[in-house]
Specification:
The protein is α+β, with helices and mostly antiparallel strands and 711 residues long. Helices cover 26% and strands 26% of the residues. The protein is built from 16 helices and 33 strands. It has a five-stranded mixed β-sheet with strand order 26-25-27-33-30. It is elongated and about 95 Å long. 39% of the residues are buried.
Length: 711
């Protein structure tokens, strides 16, 4: 009985609408209207559209016959108000509201010559806040602002009659969407809450309480919400890039927790929606970045036009640049990318549970177990097969297990397999540059030779640590095998203690002055176009094995969108999209060096990209930069001044050949747990400090390794 009463109450709130009888508005005399006006905000009053640009408010009569003409996309409207710089707008009933970013508010009734019966107010903005959203409900102005401390939007209610103020912000972080309803209601949305779900609710400004909470947990993220008085329902467009779905919420959707009705929006509604209104039953959409406004009488498009959504799971501690593919994927393939950041443990649970609600995932080699069937073989997907021909053969080998391509390389830190070489100091001291395959004994002999001349080989951090041991000797395929009986570990520990006991390491800093230190630390990301020469890490037991942290983009074998997912994977590698064409990449992907960009980013390009209005604008600007680089290369080729990989200087070519050598001897390594590494380093520290003997230390480290492998 109580449930029925609540339903009836909510239904009355949705459909009552100021106590007046609803009348079906006459449709607009045209199917679509496009206004290229670079609007900051907009509002609808009766059959007039208002928008603000550069602080001035403009008005356009939507029922005017001239707007039904074929050439109507250049309509500029008539200047209506310029009393103060307006940045936010709202309407409700017979009133229209203008607001500045600083909270100066004007509410009145639009007339032929301007605003009549106006009310002026100053919204109680906290210090440093700026109004980011505005709605009207009866005598209450509802506004959102960006909090200076948290960087998240807050929402407040200001009574125009008595000046009362109340804050009622949904929990979480990020932006807030507002829209007006009837005279007593507004609707508030937090698209990205702390737990990853969407919060969407109605608010009664008379009782100052939430009275409708919509189930929105399965929505990816809403971009715009709007109340349609024609049917008394709340609508929402999702996807900050595409607006791929249109949702319709009725009274029952709030009362019984059911999901809204979902459909495909008309094409003209999809382009980066930022605000959604309704006029005479038609949708009015303000598009982010461009500030374009479209009026669309038909709300729904064809089901055949629905974009395919490809969901990618990414570890939450990883920087991910795959979002740069969002615009081209949507434009060229109709694929909408959704990137979900999750804790690695949560991703592991989804993999083992065989969930089918995602398509791709980034797996890091320290958690990767290729014996578990949690990946889809990729070699038979045509788009992927095409791009793998661009890769070094050794990269394809690294990404292959049991004859199947299990993933594509997202990142590999081959730079950590090399050390800088101080060629000037080496020449001064008559020291030969070590060759690939040099051993710990060679390293020790060189350190002693340098010490005799008053120099140190490196700082007091090991050039080869237990990280390296872990990568090289922990089996990467999850068979539970440790590929060392203790011989390699024993040699590594003895070597480290000898270096410390004989004082062969620079004592004060891991990275000492260049005139004192011959080898110091990793050289950074760029293994080929480096500022210094490089030598490979010494081998632990004489076998050349190089391995370090790597991650791979892999496909869920239960993905419902495998063909679309394969297009995303191929685009990640395809040089046309520029993700890995910079010579400063952690990994050199392409064996054809004409595919790389040599016009490295400069401050002017960075500023040019930073000024992009939205992701589509940024993609266009990036293409302009690439085109300029291509023209530069063509010009240099005509002049005979172009330098490619085969004409580089001796130092760079040496680094490149070393890179290829390391790549050919690279194998996947696997760290079973970081806990093991912490434990092993502690045991190692006790041995180096002579607190326990060698045999006991080796025994403790190997026993813990076997315990970890056995689960």
């Amino acid at each position: 009985m109580k449930r029925i009463f609540i339903w009836l109450l909510l239904a009355s709130l949705f459909f009552a609408g100021c106590g007046k009888k609803k009348e079906t508005p006459a449709p607009l005399p045209f199917p679509d209207l496009t206004l290229d006006v670079r609007a900051e905000d907009m509002a609808v009053f009766c059959s007039s559209l208002f928008w603000c640009a550069d602080g001035v408010v403009y008005r356009l009569d939507l029922t005017a016959e001239e707007n039904a003409a074929p050439e109507h996309d250049e309509s500029e409207g008539t200047p209506f108000f310029d009393g103060f710089p307006v940045s936010r707008m709202a309407s409700e009933g017979e009133r229209l509201a203008f607001c500045s970013s600083g909270g100066k508010l004007l509410v009145g009734i639009p007339g032929a010559d301007g605003m009549e019966k106006t009310q002026n107010a100053a919204l109680p903005l906290p210090s440093g806040g700026e109004v980011s959203g505005l709605a009207l409900a009866g005598d209450t102005a509802v506004f959102s602002w960006r909090d200076a401390e948290s960087g998240s939007d807050r929402v407040g209610f200001y009574n125009l009659s008595n000046g009362d103020f109340l804050e009622e912000s949904p929990g979480g972080e990020g932006r807030i969407l507002l829209c007006g309803g009837d005279a007593e209601h507004v609707y508030i949305c937090r698209p990205d809450s702390m737990d990853g779900t969407v919060q969407l609710f109605g608010f009664d400004v008379k009782s100052m309480k939430r009275d409708a909470v919509f189930s929105a947990g399965d929505l990816v993220g809403l971009a715009a919400i709007g109340w349609n008085a024609a049917d008394g329902c709340l609508y929402a467009l999702d996807g900050a890039i595409g607006g791929a779905n249109l949702y319709r919420f009725g009274a029952s959707d709030a009362s019984d927790g059911g999901l809204a009705e979902k459909s495909v929006p008309a094409d003209s509604m999809r382009n980066t929606p930022r605000k959604l209104l309704f006029a005479n039953g038609s949708a009015v959409v303000l598009h982010g970045g461009s500030g374009e406004i479209t009026v669309c009488r038909e709300l729904h498009g064809s089901e055949e036009d629905r974009e395919t959504t490809v969901t990618i799971l990414v570890p939450d501690d990883m920087y991910c640049n795959l979002d740069r593919l969002s615009v081209p994927m949507l434009k060229e393939y109709g694929i909408r990318l959704v990137i979900k950041k999750m804790k690695t443990e949560a991703i592991d649970i989804k993999l083992l549970a065989r969930d089918d609600d995602y398509d791709l995932w980034i797996g890091e080699n320290y958690t990767l177990n290729l014996n578990v069937p949690i990946w889809e073989p990729l070699e038979d997907y045509p788009l992927i097969a095409d791009v793998t021909t661009l890769l070094f053969d050794e990269i394809v080998r690294i990404c292959t297990a049991d004859g199947h391509l299990f993933g594509l390389p997202y990142s590999m830190q081959l730079a950590n397999c090399t050390l800088p070489w101080n060629s000037e100091l080496a020449e001064k001291l008559g020291i030969e540059k070590p060759e690939a395959g040099w051993t710990l004994d060679d390293f020790l002999a060189l350190a002693r030779s340098l010490k005799e001349q008053g120099y140190y080989i490196c700082g007091n951090a090991w050039p080869v640590t237990l990280h390296d041991y872990m990568w090289r000797y922990f089996d990467p395929y999850g068979t539970g095998e440790l590929n060392d009986d203790g011989t390699a570990l024993r040699k590594l520990l003895v070597w480290g203690k000898t270096l410390e006991d004989e004082g062969l390491l620079y004592p004060d800093s891991a990275f000492g002055p260049k005139d004192l230190v011959l080898l110091s630390g990793p050289i950074g990301a760029n293994t080929v176009y480096s500022t210094s020469e490089t030598v490979p890490d010494p081998t632990i037991d004489g076998r050349e094995i190089y391995s370090d942290s790597a991650s791979f983009l892999m496909m869920n074998p239960l993905s419902p969108h495998k063909e679309a997912a394969s297009a995303v994977m191929a685009a990640m590698i395809d040089p046309a999209y520029g993700l890995y064409t910079s010579p400063t990449s952690l990994l050199y992907y392409y064996k054809d060096f004409s595919l790389y960009r040599w016009d490295s980013p400069n401050p002017e390009d960075a500023a040019f990209l930073a000024e992009a209005a939205d992701e589509a604008d940024r993609a266009e600007r990036e293409q302009l930069i690439r085109d300029r680089g291509a023209r530069m290369i063509e010009s240099e080729m005509r002049d005979g001044t172009y330098t490619d990989i085969w004409n580089m200087d001796a130092k760079t070519r040496g680094n490149y050949e070393l890179y290829l050598h390391i790549l050919s001897n690279y194998k996947l390594g696997r760290s079973y747990t970081k806990d093991w590494l912490m434990f092993a380093q502690d045991e190692c520290g006790r041995y180096l400090a002579s607190e326990q003997d060698l045999d006991y230390t080796v025994k403790r480290i190997l026993e813990r390794a076997k315990m970890v492998m056995e689960g």
